[in-house]
Design a protein that fits this description.
The chain is an alpha/beta fold. Helix content is about 10%, strand content about 20%. Helix 5 links the parallel strand 11 and strand 12. The relative contact order is 0.03. The N terminus and C terminus are likely disordered. It is found in: Cell membrane.
Length: about 950
């Protein structure tokens, strides 16, 4: 409601309000008092908001009741305001139904019941009543049903707000055309997708100044050809955000007059360049076009906008589009308070100079490609929020930032700032609340007795240089809720004062330092649902007592020892992530350890000394996606209860003492599995064919067990490994979570350990994990032939079938596995030729076919001849490079200089530099260019084959 409208209501001589100062002469009308009491009977007042409404003598005057105002001349009730904010607490609404006795208040001109809870009830049918009503607000009360005839007789209505209800089957808004005096209309948050005539709202309401249709499922429109002639002259606020509108809406907006003050078309499907006509709106204060697909040059658009709005524009939101160009001098917009251009494709640097001092309060240029250093920030003395994270800004951070006495939020993470941050950068930042310098090569060096002028709420200094000593200035910060000083080069014991943490703390990350000592009792140190990350340090002693309300606990890669029972006791319904891997923990897990972990997504206890059986209570984790128990001493079988964990994606129980057969139900219940490692246990029996149902599997490792039988001939059903194009599914290994502190997001990334040729390879970063497509069945007792279907797994990068009893030939179509990098078929009983198609495996970096019964010529390719002869050892009937034995009919190439000795020596050096450089940058890039060069330069061909021959014979 505008201040003008409120003033009109207050001074109206007929329906003026009793503002609580009454002289006691006029009381409310008895019938209206009874109508209010009947209205109260339909409500459920859980919190006593209407306790002043009653029948006692002291409460007989309804004009003095809460939320009621009366005419001081007539005593009629003119205002009923029970919206939640007026009641004092948004979490304590009135509930129930609206009694029709409300319609007896014939002199009401103001009615507000917004944000209460009337779920499942219908919009009242005013049925000719309340004809004097001018302000009606039923926003967010849970009304259902249709929206049509109920409002037809409210002819005096000036303001109508029915936003965020659950109206259905709204097909037209024709009934609203009778509300000819309407100035404000808000239908936001209702489904109007079937309404084709919504554009006529403006035409049919000549006094309309505020139109809000946010989140209404509005689709593309075809503007009426004569709409401009019939448009009102007063429309100033237009909000069509979060719909499905296309760029055709621009034509309709243009058809409106230039009185628009606030325009919001954000989060639609607008494309193309931003029309220049916005520059003709000379009263424009707010323009919001964020979250679309708009293109074009930002400097060009601002030039258009400056034609008429240079002195009026206050808020400009263009974030999350595809605008390009440099960042122009925006201080020319003398009234500009907020500028949002985050998430575009802006490049270049900040302007070297600005034309004038600016009253800018918010500047958000995050998530672009800006380079260079920060400008002189003294030009922005009013700045409260500066967002520059996620760019390519470099150089030192200007000390002028310390002059921004009103600055509250500084987000500068993920850039390339360097140099030293000192007291001078903060000397006048007494209002600073949130500081993010994460992931910049900055060093923070302060005097030991420095007293910061601020009390921070959020401290984000990940990967900045704070050490080697623990930063003493943190002792002055008493009220922070988020602290991230991970990977900050801090070493040594944590001072005792640090553990006396802020009483508001909800997220703590001190991981990836060299911190030592014992961690004290943390059970009562946090609020809300906290995240705690102490990983990758040198902490020792028993596990500390931890908060039972935690969302995330990561104590991995330390030296904690002893029992894990204290953690089992605090696993509750809030815990999502639990990582205790890489410690010295021992003992048996209680069988009921996980019984209360309904929300657990990640459980990682790998690399410890835990023993006994895997608790059956693990089956009580319906949300579980990652279970890591690698490298412990668990024994017995995989518990049958685990089949209840149907969301499981990552299961690693390798390097334990588990036994029994591989459960067939893994392939029936765990259909989301991406990573399955049973490596180095005591499993026996066949590989169940049900495992072929794991269509999402990327890594299957059953190696180093006692598995027998044949390899199932259904592995082509591993469809994710069979796709030529690798997926871009980052959610497979990366989990994000929000701490209870507003807006703070943490991440947990699965760690995959792959054993290959006696070496452990750890993958714990995206996209490393995404590239893994591996099958490892090595060191078992498998027999029979390698099924040809295995060559259909087109995206596989690693195949290890070594140390089994496999017979027959290598599948002839193995060359189809174009992505293959690791191949080990050694120590089997394979026979026949090496398939010629292996010459097409251009990405191979490791190959081992040794100790089989292979025969014939090794196929010629730049890859196969680059491997050591040991890769083919033990196959006495193989011939050709790189093995010493020549094939029948081969002649040794001439060794030594030819008539072109000088030229060859020179080109030999040039070739070697190019060849090794090509391998270093990836064979996939260099291979075809390499062949082309050989075709053009015969002397290089000679050098190549001399080089390969020397590698094969061991010559130097």
């Amino acid at each position: 409601m505008s201040s003008f409208f409120l003033f009109f209501l207050l001074v109206d001589p007929v329906s003026g309000f009793n503002l609580g100062v009454g002289d006691g002469q006029i009381q409310c009308i008895g019938s209206e008092r009874q109508a209010l009491l009947n209205f109260k009977q339909g409500l459920i007042d859980d919190y006593g908001h209407l306790s002043s409404w009653g029948s006692e003598e002291a409460k007989r005057d309804c004009c003095k009741w809460r939320g009621i105002q009366c005419s001081f001349q007539t005593g009629h009730v003119t205002m009923l305001d029970l919206h939640v904010s007026e009641l004092g607490d948004s979490n304590k609404p009135l509930r129930g139904k609206i009694n029709h006795s409300l319609l007896e208040l014939q002199h009401l001109n103001y009615l507000d019941l917004s944000c209460n809870d009337f779920q499942g009830t219908l919009l009242p049918n005013f049925n000719g009543s309340l004809s004097k009503l001018r302000y009606l607000n039923f926003s967010n009360v849970g009304f259902t049903g249709t929206l049509s005839y109920q409002l037809r007789n409210l002819s005096s209505l000036h303001s109508l707000d029915l936003s965020y209800n659950n109206f259905t089957k709204v097909e037209n808004l024709e009934r609203l055309s009778h509300l000819s005096y309407l100035e404000t209309l808000d239908l936001s948050g209702n489904s109007l997708g079937k309404v084709s005539d919504w554009v006529h709202i403006v035409k049919n309401h000549p006094y309309l100044t505020n139109l809000h249709l946010r989140s209404c499922d509005l689709a593309t429109i075809i503007p009426p050809s004569n709409s401009r002639a019939n448009s009102p002259i007063s429309l100033s606020v237009l909000d069509l955000s979060s719909n499905n509108l296309s760029s055709s809406v621009f034509q309709w907006v243009f058809s409106l007059n230039s009185s628009l003050v606030h325009v919001n078309l954000s989060y639609n499907q607008l494309e193309g360049t931003i029309p220049s006509f916005f520059g003709n709106f000379c009263r424009l204060h707010t323009l919001d076009l964020a979250g679309n697909n708009l293109t074009g040059s930002l400097p060009v658009f601002l030039e258009h906008l400056s034609v008429c709005a240079e002195s009026s524009l206050e808020i400009l939101r263009l974030g999350m589009n595809q605008l390009h160009g440099s960042l122009p001098d925006f201080t020319r917009f003398s009234s500009l308070k907020e500028l949002f251009v985050y998430g575009n494709q802006l490049n270049g640097s900040f302007p070297e100079t600005f034309s004038q001092l600016s009253g800018l309060v918010v500047l958000d240029v995050a998530g672009n490609q800006l380079t260079g250093s920060l400008p002189d920030l003294t030009m922005f003395p009013s700045l409260k929020k500066l967002c520059i994270f996620g760019n390519r800004l470099n150089g030192t951070v200007t000390e002028s930032i310390g002059s921004l006495s009103k600055l509250e939020f500084l987000y500068a993470s993920h850039n390339f700032f360097e140099g030293v941050i000192t007291e001078a950068h903060f000397w006048n930042l007494s209002q600073l609340q949130e500081l993010y310098f994460n992931d910049n090569p900055l060093a923070l060096k302060f005097d030991s007795d420095w007293l910061p002028p601020f009390q921070l709420d959020v401290i984000g200094l990940m990967s900045c240089k704070l050490g080697p000593r623990f930063p003493k200035w943190l002792q002055t910060q008493k009220n922070f809720s988020v602290l991230d000083i991970s990977d900050a080069g801090i070493s040594g014991p944590v001072p005792k004062w640090f553990w006396d943490l802020s009483p508001r703390l909800s997220f703590l990350n001190i991981s990836y330092n060299q911190l030592s000592g014992m961690v004290p009792d943390l059970s009562s140190k946090f609020i809300g649902s906290p995240g705690v990350d102490l990983s990758s340090n040198l902490f020792e002693g028993p596990l500390p007592l931890l908060p039972s309300n935690a969302l995330s606990l990561d104590l991995s890669k330390n030296k904690f020892l002893g029992s894990i029972s204290s953690v089992c006791k605090i696993i509750g319904w809030t815990l999502n992530f639990l990582d205790l891997s890489g410690n010295l923990l021992s003992g048996v897990l209680a069988d009921d350890c996980f019984r209360n972990g309904e929300q657990l997504i990640v459980v990682n206890m790998a690399e410890n000394n835990l023993s006994g059986k895997i608790p059956t209570s693990v089956g009580s984790l319906p949300m579980l996606q990652t279970l890591g128990l690698r490298n412990n001493s668990f024994s017995g079988e995989i518990p049958l209860s685990l089949r209840n964990c149907s969301r499981l994606r990552f299961l690693d129980v390798s390097y334990n003492r588990l036994s029994g057969k591989i459960p067939a139900w893994i392939g029936e219940s765990q259909l989301e599995l991406v990573f399955l490692s049973l490596q180095s246990n005591e499993f026996h029996g066949n590989i169940p064919f049900q495992l072929c149902r794991l269509q999402n599997i990327r890594l299957l490792d059953l190696s180093i067990n006692n598995i027998s039988g044949t390899i199932p001939n259904c592995l082509q059903n591993f469809t994710h490994m069979s796709r030529k194009q690798l997926d871009n599914d980052s959610n497979t290994y990366v989990y994000e979570f929000s701490a209870s502190s507003g807006g703070f997001t943490g991440r947990y990334v699965d760690r995959a350990v792959i054993e290959w040729k006696g070496r452990a390879h750890t993958y714990e970063k995206y996209p490393q994990l995404q590239l893994l497509r591996i099958i490892n069945l090595a060191e078992n007792k498998l027999s029979g032939e390698i099924p040809g279907e295995i060559t259909s797994i087109l995206a596989m990068v690693g195949l290890n079938l070594s140390r089994n009893y496999l017979t027959g030939m290598i599948p002839q179509e193995i060359g189809q596995l174009k992505q293959l990098q690791w191949l080990d078929l050694s120590r089997n009983r394979l026979s026949g030729d090496i398939p010629a198609s292996m010459a097409e495996l251009h990405f191979l970096s490791t190959v081992d076919l040794s100790y089989n019964n292979l025969s014939g010529r090794i196929p010629t390719s730049t890859q196969l001849q680059s491997f050591d002869a040991s890769s083919f050892a033990g196959n006495v009937n193989l011939c050709g490079p790189p093995v010493i034995r020549n094939c029948p009919g081969d002649e040794r190439p001439q060794i030594g200089p030819t008539n072109d000795d000088d030229q060859d020596n020179e080109e030999n050096d040039e070739f070697r530099n190019w060849f090794y450089g090509g391998l270093g940058s990836g064979f996939s890039i260099g291979f075809w260019g390499f062949l082309g060069i050989l075709m053009l330069r015969p002397s290089w061909r000679r050098v190549l084959f001399q080089f390969l021959y020397k590698k094969g014979t061991g010559s130097s």
